Every structure is written in structure tokens, then in C-alpha cells.
Amino acid sequence: MPIHGTDDTRQEVLSPAAPEKIRTEWDIYLLFSLHKSIAVLVNKSRLQPVGDVYTIQPNCLDLEQSLLESQELQPVSSVDKTINFLDQKCLGTLTAFVVQGGMMVTSGHAALNERKEDIEIGKFVNNTLVVFGWEAAPDGTKPNSFNKDQVFEIAEVLVLKREKPDYCIFRTTTPIDVMRFPPLDLLPSDNLTVFTKGDAIITAGCPDGLPMKVAEGKIKSYALNAAQQPWQYLASVFRGCSGSPIFSVKDGSISPFVIGMVEAGEKDFQAVNEQVQVVKLTGDVDGESQEEATRMEAIRWALDRQASVTITIICERPARNRTPPTLVVSFKGKQLGSIVFKGNASPQGFITVSTATLMELNIAPIEITTLNLRLELPENPDKTNTATEIKLNSVVLRIANPDSEKSTEFIQKGRRALRNTITVNPTPLQFPAQILTG
């Protein structure tokens, strides 16, 4: 993800040259700056808790040293001194932002292992800190430490997908104070704005883990009704900006809705005669280069209590002439529904989770993480003819736009190829975070 255009026009997020809506309190109702909702993800080895603060460790390199040591650029012996921000610390790995309910969103490849080959959610959760306030002040000074109320550990990943689309929704161990770090609104599915080639955009994130920067750019292509596919744009974003929110700009005004999230793109740096140089591209929307952004539609419904939420359960058919019991499904003590597999009918049932149930539980759809399943037998069961256990084959949770015409706007996760035995005693079943692809 390189420089698009002849010059690096990125600005510090609090610079007087940065767009006003990013750095000042502008909304008379919410009274927040967009940048307050954006955080950097940091490996725990780079911050040391000391008393009430986290201090940046000596192993946190500046950009120049980081480029000299990059395995991807070897062999190199020097760095082009015209590259911006060479003396700034590369504290972070990715960018994230707050969404509804104090949950956070970033890119799914945040959980890639060091070889960039496999997803390792456990290591991501255990080794990552969420840090707010990684910003250069207007006078250019940068933080050397952070108060503990700016730093959060990750509790769990609720859902993750590595590509097409590339996203991760997670929750922190200590709830995010949404008055201090307000949630960003995602682009509504009923949005009537048509984005076309050349439309202006702006994004804020932490390129190469540096203090937060603002980058302006243009849309290259934005297909309609393609929620699972990325859209394309041109902006000077770099590795570390993955997970940064993107906003549209109309008539000089920044929209409050996140229309996309930085995902992937062109190479940032290259070695030329053993010198590290930044890659510069034309910035022409009709050219071949482009960056890719994750769309917000499917992610939005994962957080929206108005979503269509369906649990599909497939079991083995009880033995012939055996009366099937009722399968009862609950979450956090609340019964979500029940299924009776009757006669010769297919051993498959559906439970719809209502908006009222989600509101009663005070959760977003994606927070349905562990179900309890049990059998309910007839009041006077015929012990010789009533099935007292069933074999569970699969359980799938689907969260989608309630408008069935927009069929690409969904998230689906679950467990398949199960052989769990369900009896009258409650059996917990946890959904994995990773998305089902088939």
C-alpha cells in the first residue's frame, strides 16, 4: 500500500492541516472526533505496565531502523531520507475502531501467525493490546507512555474472516467506555448514495504502526449488491493501516458513516541498489494500481438487532418407530426456540431469534457465541418407544439483512461434522469465530 501520486500528502491526525471533522468536535449530538474512536493494535512485548501507565519499550524500532531490518527488503544498507516519518516509532501492527456496543472491528488478517500462513486466534487474543491515543500532538510531540484507561486487553474474537471480505469483530476484557471512545456508525444497507469513480474519500489509521495519520484519496470502483467482495480505491495507506475506517467526502463534508475498511493493496517499499525507497504510483483512477477495502454491509448486520438471525440444526434421524423428543435451544438462560423432528421428516430444524429476544438479552446477533442444547421428553414417555438421545450433526448461525433480496449481506458461522450426543442434560456448544465458507 504505497504513495498514490507524486507526493506523500499524509498528515498527522491532530495537525492543523488535517481535515477539521477528523480532529475537532463537530457533531452537536455526539460531540466526538472521529479519531477518538480509532485505536492501534500493539504486541504486548512493546509496552511495559509500570504503575498506572504502559511505557513504550526499547524494542519498539523507529521506521528507519524497521525498514533496514525488514526481511522482505534484504539486502539493503540504507534508507531514502526523503521518506516521511523515519524517526517515528513503529509501535503498532494494525488499526481498529469502535462499533456498536463497545465492540471493535479490524482486519481478519490481524490473527495471522508470524509466517503469515495460518490464523491463530488464541495468540492474537493473548498477545495483543488495544491502545487509544497513539497520536502526535499539534506541536509534534509523541507519547512515550499511555494511561491504563487508554489500553485494553482482548477478551475474545466474536467472528473472523481472512478474505473476501477480510474482517474481525472482537470484544475487550474491560468494556469500552463509549462516551469516551464513541462507536462509529457503519454505512446503512438502505443507503441511497451511489459511489462512483473519482469520488473523494478519507481514512485515518496507523501506517507501519506509526502515530495516527490521515490520508485522502479517491474511489476507483464500488460495485452494488456485492457485500462479500471488496471495493477499490486509491489512497496513500501503508501496512498497519489495515483495519482503518474509510469515510466518503461529499461537497467538502466528511460523511459520519464508515463506508469501508482498509484491507490490502500494492507493495509499500522496495529495495533499489540496496536502498529502501517508498513505492510511488500515479494515483490515476484509470490506471492499473489500486487498494482494496472491505465492505461494511455484512459486518453491519452482525451488530444490528434488526437483522434476520436463524439457527439451523441438523441431527441424525431417530431409529424407525421411535418417537422423537423435543430439542430445546437456549442462550444465557433464555430459551431461543425448540425443534421437534416428526415422523419421516428431514432431521433438520430452524430457529429464528427475534429482535425482541436480542433486546431482552441486550446483545448484538454476533454475540450469540455458546448455545445450550437439551432434550425435552413427553410427560409420560413410553420408554420403549421414545428416543432419549439424538446425535447432532451440525449447527449453523446465519445473520443477514432481513430484506431477502440483498442475499449477499450475511455472516454465517457454525459447527459441522459433529457427533455430539444430546440428552435431557444441557450440552453447551460453542460457535468458532471463523466463518463458514461452504
TrEMBL record:
Listed InterPro entries: Peptidase_S1_PA, Peptidase_S1_PA_chymotrypsin
Top-rank taxon: Eukaryota
Pfam families cross-referenced by the UniProt entry: Trypsin_2
Name under which the protein is recorded: Serine protease
Native species: Favolaschia claudopus
